[in-house]
Amino acid sequence: MLAWYLEVNALLRAIRQKAVDAQGCLASGDEAGAKRINGYLKNDYQTLRKLWTDAGFPQQDMGNLGRHIGFGDANDYDDILARDLPHVKARPRRMRATAPIPSPGLGSRTCCIR
Description:
The protein has helices spanning about 1-25, 30-55, 65-70, 75-100. By secondary structure, it is an all-alpha fold. The chain has 4 helices and no strands. Helix 1 (about 1-25) runs antiparallel to helix 2 and helix 2 packs antiparallel against helix 3.
């Protein structure tokens, strides 16, 4: 479960950075650059959605992230950064916070005092 959590967080960080980059392209009038970045965002979203649903989370928990990536307008990137990513990040954090802490197995060292 830790590997899944780390992979999801890496994807969310990548989505965040790409949203910031696309926002910058649009602000400077580079619509072609924003469109190219949006294509990468769509790929990241598909990967995230697969990880998400394979872990048993409903796709609805991802809110409007997919819709905002799909449209890719300036206001959509604002929503991705301000609302969608914090909303999506909250679910795995809650799950991680309530996950049982694994106990050390037999033969593992828990103390080095002799």
